Amino acid sequence: MSDSVQETKIIFCNVCKVSTNHVFRARYARPHFNFDGGYVSENYEARAFIWSCAGCDEATFESQLLELNQGEEEWGDYFPARQQEGLRQRKFFQNLKPDLNQLYEDVVACLNNDRLLLFTIGLRALEF
Ligand SMILES: [Zn+2]
Q1: Dihedral angle at the C-alpha atoms of 66, 67, 70, 76, nearest 10 degrees?
Q2: Cys-Cys crosslink for 64: which of 17, 51, 76, 87, Cβ 3.0 to 4.6 Å?
Q3: How large is the C-alpha radius of gyration of the chain?
Q4: Residue 27 CA, ligand 1 centroid: distance in Å
């Protein structure tokens, strides 16, 4: 029997629809590359994690950007986006053609990710 302790983190699970323990599966870190300036920043580090829900085993990807000189202040994001309150769920239409179904799915994703210009364009396209 192993003495190792499993690393866990409480994250909202899109499948279970509640915050659950997520089990650590993998980690990757590298210096942050500044695409605008074209240089590698020594003050920032980009980290990525893979977690799996302890309830349903659904995988979640987490990306973080850490400012190393400021007490490891971090900004993080999850993929797919957490579907907590405020996010729209897509509805299912039986007779929707595949291309319109894909457009509808993309429109809902744009709305949930604050891509309002793309959301508006997609919504207009759905009306025709
Ligand atoms: Zn779950």
Answers
A1: -40
A2: 76
A3: 19
A4: 20
- Is 29:40 a contact under the CB 8 Å cutoff? no
CA of 108 to the centre of ligand 1 (A): 22
Cα–ligand 1 centroid distance for 17 (angstroms) = 7
pTM over 0.70: no
**Do the beta carbons of residue 13 and residue 22 sit within 8 Å?**
yes
| Averaged pLDDT in 10-residue chunks for the chain of 128 residues | 78 90 94 69 84 96 83 76 76 88 91 88 90
Helix (H, G, I), strand (E, B) or coil at 10: strand
Residue 97 sits at φ, ψ, to 5 deg, of -65, 150
- Nearest-5° angle of CA 15, CA 87, CA 45? 80
- From residue 4, alpha-carbon distances to 53, 54, 84 in Å are 19, 17, 32
Residue pair 42/31 in contact by the 8 Å Cβ criterion: yes
